[in-house]
């Protein structure tokens, strides 16, 4: 049984794109129908494989953005202008198109709604995607573990899921969102544009004494810096889970 489950996850299957939704000028959500999908945990990802007519094939990983919802799975892809795969996924792929995927993948960077501990999410750029799946899974399950999200983006216009996060943070269910900007902040914003630093973490993150489960996701440099700062601030390294999306690519 367990072997069949693992093999199922490692087998490529063909999903159908049922809808696409622009989140920002540079990022798009792709809604997939995956008949026979075994379900997923918030935080897991998929592999996507593209194959050219000449047989050349390449694959990339994408976090699942949606809470578990039957055969429906959402991905959010941010375009890297010189990238091989992301411009195709976020600019070309259209409803009705097939897409080869396998998964769900990953058993460590996951959050389960039945866990009561406070949760601290720290996202850099598109690293918010698997953390959004956790926030959505919490809302869908009516779970009451207190959640905090610290979300760093280059500027307000590149922040994903803006309206949904505002709505969920305002509904009194225990989600707090702190935003930070590295290149351009909104007019009158209290903190000048800067990377996440120890001061911001001290203000926005649950204190170590609360023993939060911490999930950090984003470009490699962002994740390593934040994890180091959290450990220096007294957080138990065993409670910090990280997911690296790739090169830091400058300031995120
Ligand atoms: C577990 C996992 C989950 C991921 N989830 C998501 C997701 O939900 N949404 C999403 O948009 N991306 C996600 N990624 C990143 C994704 O897999 C690709 O790396 C990304 O889309 C770039 O692919 P590409 O083919 O367009 O670029 P490539 O052709 O691979 O690279 C183009 C250039 O960009 C650089 N580069 C590659 N990846 C990154 C990056 N992440 N940041 C900055 N520079 C980079 C390369 O070094 C190269 O210079 C995830 C990665 C991992 C490992």
Could you walk me through the main structural features you see in this protein, from its secondary elements to its overall organization?
- The protein is built from six helices and eleven strands.
- It has 252 residues and is α/β, with parallel strands linked by helices.
- A hairpin with a 2-residue loop joins strand 1 (13-24) and strand 2 (27-33).
- The strands form two sheets. The protein has a six-stranded antiparallel sheet. A five-stranded parallel sheet has the order 9-8-7-10-11, with helices on both faces.
- The model has no long low-confidence stretch (mean pLDDT 94).
- The chain has helices at residues 2-10, 86-92, 128-141, 162-170, 198-204, 220-232; strands at 13-24, 27-33, 45-51, 57-63, 72-78, 98-105, 119-124, 147-153, 175-181, 213-218, 240-244.
- The longest helix is centred in the middle third of the chain and has 14 residues, at 128-141.
- Residues 45, 60-63, 76-78, 80, 82-86, 126, 129, 219, 243, 245-247, 249 line the site of flavin-adenine dinucleotide (FAD).
